[in-house]
Amino acid sequence: MNFNEYPIDSLMYITNRPEIVFTHGKGSWLYDNNGKRYLDFIQGWAVNCLGHCNDGMIEALNQQAKLLINPSPAFYNEPMAKLAGLLTQHSCFDKVFFANSGAEANEGAIKLARKWGRKFKDGAFEIITFDHSFHGRTLATMSASGKPGWDTIYAPQVPGFPKADLNDIASVEKLINAKTVAVMLEPIQGEGGVIPATREFMQQLRELTKQHNILLIVDEVQSGCGRAGTLFAYQLSGIEPDIMTLGKGIGGGVPLAALLSKAEIAVFEAGDQGGTYNGNPLMTAVGYSVISQLTAPGFLEGVRSRGEYLRTKLLELSEERGFKGERGEGLLRALLLGKDIGYQIVEKARDMQPDGVLLNAARPNLLRFMPALNVTTGEIDQMLAMLRSVLDSL
Ligand SMILES: *Cc1c(COP(=O)(O)O)cnc(C)c1O
């Protein structure tokens, strides 16, 4: 179909979108309404961890759709229990609550911390978060985020989220008072421009929060589920947080998210937390397929080696073009351009002929790479060749 034949005008405006409509995808490739194909290094914003239309996910979705789609969140179902069991087996956490989006999982983490504070810390409710962090688009998670401008768009904000500086333990310590209940951070800031918290900082945070008897919450919506080369990014720093949230990769493209905690932190009482679709079997069956594939023998080793391959190749490119290097973990990486040409590169790369390549500039001076975790080195080479030809044309 021609672009003009789609009833695009009926969609509420929220952002500028290119005049193409995606119709299907497989693995690392997406296809549009004109039959043009795109090598996809965005993958739904680090969501499709197994690429487009993964066979195992399709199978799980089909099987479950025939069995049971929704019994109600007030009852147990088999996929919800199986996925929770898989997650606790492969993490340091004991309890799981399923949600539908990263923001909703983070809202749950905020509620759980506040409830714990009410119960054990004399009503402490403040959660220290970080400049340039991103925790979602609900009012509370926007308030928790340190994204410039987000304090005013929908003012007034939800109170109780003082901001510290990432990798600066003194800036955190300064904010701790009797009202503090938790520190919440992304182990790797994603939207902020792929900025990893150092191993040392994570360990200092764990030490500091223990010392003050406050909770450590990791938002692994983007860094979790194999993205950083380990199943969860907190595992890179050898610490155990109290609470973790997952989203994006856990569903591999379907709306699924999770809130996990240590047993002693799981203090919700009947009626405190819920949601119509929490733990619905259709989504958790897909999540079970995703996490099973990520934890299959050899898979994460493969992610680490492909991440290392991408890292080496980005460094070569940086050297060759006089850029400022690269950073990241696993298959969440950024190329530091040193100048504000990111958006221009993204557009030209998408519009290339005959094939396009989908890239993201999380900030104007860098490119963020978040391919499928099963991307091949051949596809990485292809992406780099296409990127080089875009750079030549600037
Ligand atoms: C994307 C993201 C969120 C929000 O997830 P949604 O599913 O869009 O609500 C929260 N935290 C981090 C770190 C993210 O990258």
Automatic annotation (TrEMBL):
PROSITE patterns: AA_TRANSFER_CLASS_3
Binding site for N(2)-acetyl-L-ornithine: 137
Entry's localization field: Cytoplasm
Other comment: May also have succinyldiaminopimelate aminotransferase activity, thus carrying out the corresponding step in lysine biosynthesis.
Pathway the protein takes part in: Amino-acid biosynthesis; L-arginine biosynthesis; N(2)-acetyl-L-ornithine from L-glutamate: step 4/4; Amine and polyamine biosynthesis; ectoine biosynthesis; L-ectoine from L-aspartate 4-semialdehyde: step 1/3
In-chain residues carrying the UniProt-annotated modification N6-(pyridoxal phosphate)lysine: 248
Name of the protein this chain belongs to: Acetylornithine aminotransferase
